Amino acid sequence: MKSAGSCFEREWQTLKHNTSFVFGLALYVGEGSKCIPDVAFVNCDPDVHRAFVRFLQLLGYESTRLSVLLYLHRGDDSDAARKFWVEKLGIPASRFTRDVFVTPRSASGKRIRMQPNGTCRVRVRRSTELSIKLRTWMSLALSEYGRVAEAPLFQSG
Quick check: bond before 104 cis, omega within 30? Predict the structure, then answer.
């Protein structure tokens, strides 16, 4: 019986030529949770989120497997923020869970710039296998593309 890892490696060999896949994986490397069993992606930019949702669709995950949570600041309009993200992501409002309200402060105690529509977290439900796949693909991508990083990042002189 072949291991799941070798199956994921075969998938990598096919998917690595798809720029949408590579871009989605890069987004996950930068902004995704790396804790098994969750696959979650947090960002405040709807364009970045749309790209990540397209990545999930490319992998066969539809909106019925997703849940969305919004991080809002006290005083934000929760209904307007939810409507904004529903329209931007194309994910039904029924997939949205409770909102989390936070009070941001800088180190100086002053209020910092807030996102008017909050920060969005998209999570794939029951995603242990996907989490393991993504970790495997991250490792393969870093092995393959990391060769570029072997050159000195800065040259003196």
Answer: no
